[in-house]
Amino acid sequence: MLNFILNPETKVFYMQNDIQQLEALRDELQARLNRLSASNKDTHLDSVQKSFHMGMVGGSGRNTASLNKRRARNLDKTIDNAVIFCRVDAELREVERKLAAAIYQRDNADTIAAKKERKIAILIGYWNQIKAGDTVVIPFGNEVTVTKKNTKSIMTGPECKWTAADI
Fold it and tell me: Considering the entire predicted model, what is its pTM?
């Protein structure tokens, strides 16, 4: 979702654009959650539940059966809305996580780039210090002795050639 290109000014524009899209999506999901939590209200059932012991009307008859059917429909609607609520809430948490990551990346873009540049400078310094006769650690923890070195690679044997990226 976060699209970057090499130009720093454009990179900030795209990050800001993505942040705005994520914030709009977050607000939309929050409004949907608010609508879902408010849609379960049936004032007539609430008033009946307050008026009778344990919230239920006893006896039998047409009105009681109708009220019980209405209560069952309301319970089904509540369960369906709870399932939807859980899905939307999970999506909202994912959007908030992406938004926090995008804001962190936007705010710390300079420090992240500076750390990467320092790491590259250290690796270049290490590469420049290697000379023939030195022992270096190659992948898998093996130590080898450098027999020949040029600007792009080192030789550790008659047919073993390693680049800076390999080490």
Answer: 0.51
